[in-house]
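Troubleshooting log. The previous structure file for this entry was overwritten by mistake, so regenerating from the original sequence record. Sequence copied from the archived sheet and checked twice against the printout by T.R.
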Amino acid sequence: MLKIVDPNWNKSVISITILLSILLSVFVLVDPEFSSQILSQTYGILSVMFEDLYMYGSFLLLIFLITLALSKYGTIKLKLQNKPTYSMVSWSSMLFAAGIGATLLYWSTIEWIEYYNILKNDDKLTSEQILLYSRSYPIFHWGFTAWAIYCLPVVAFGLALTLKPDSNLTFSGILGIQNNIVRFILDVLFIGAIICGAGVGLGLSFPLISSVLSKILMIERTFSLDIFTILVCSSIFATSAYIGVQNGIKRLSNLNIVLVIIFLIIVLLLGPTSYIFKNSIETLSFLASNYLQMSLATGTEISLDWSVFYWAWWYALAPMVGTFLVNISNNKTLREIIFGSILIGTLGCILSMTILGNLSINLFETGAINAPNILANNIYSREELVVNSILSLDYGNILLIFFAFIIIIFLCTTYDSASYVLASASMKSSTITGSKSLRLIFAFLLVVQPTLLMYLNGVDSFKWIMVIFSVPLLFINCLLIYSILKNVYRIKKS
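Regenerated output below.
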């Protein structure tokens, strides 16, 4: 029987989560158009104001973590009480599934279009250079720097818990903040980032799943179909969240990685194989040569509208991903965690971006689907572009069914992770596993609240809220870096 109330619950964190969800929902739902406009303008101001900090700071963070991994401190092993030890395969699967989700498959197919439409009128670039940049930027935004941002809280939280196992898994708990007002602010930022990150993922994933199902079933996408999609997905990941990490998320993640690899191999073989190989090599070579320039570029349309946005997105998602990874990283060294996160995560994104992205670009270059023109003129949606790209392949209908199944599993693992993190953060000690009832509460909250926003055109507003939440996280990350330096010294000294 479920415990309705657990004495180990951190009621203040739970209250903040519920209250913040209500307030954010009300703010967006009262006037979605107005709130979206205000928040979009706010983001525009903040992106210009903090562009240098996002761009330079994120690149320096990558350098810092690589240096830490290669140093003598890289051998420090995390010792986390009451946390299981996972094999590298299972750890890698859960790392990738929790950190990415269904949005990877979504953006892998169409993100290049955004950069192409920005660069196509640049007289300084050749048509070949335009395509190379268009191919490279998606990998850049989902690659090394992104996973370094994810990795920072893993290292900081893991070291803090190794020294003080009973710390609460929030910013305030890990940093050892005693002031009640400061603790409250930090907890709001921590939980707000998780809720908003979940809302964006849900807002992007459900329309894609519904579009896929409408094609498979050959029916119009309606409100009823959307509700059916939500019910199926939510029932799967609520069940998995209730079962727990060991039996639920682990199995889903392992299954998901296998299915994604199979899917990508099939697309590679059925699609323009030689074209994909050739252009993937050229793209990776171009990205390697221009990584520093792309990392430090400021004042451009791509840096302001996309690079800053992505870094802000990853910073907002990092508390969720980092906290989840801490719970599964017992007995891992800092070197394993840093290089595992950055390299495994990046490799997975490269495979998806190069295969699905080049499939879409090939359709454009052969004249089959003029995706840049379709998006520029709003002929049909991004979701439809993704669906049509897959349908262009032999056995496209069968692949689309496979694709839908993968997206659903991807979505489930991500939200399992989110509910698990919120449950962990809501316990008085990190050594106490979040109860099943609490995981179910958060699983429900994470579905219902963003779904309401989605159907009232509030997804954009939720996205901007999430990005705005990331600005103070830039400064919190400085505290996390200080905490890392202090704790590695203490551990080595002891």
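The chain has one domain: 11-493. Archived copy saved in two places this time.
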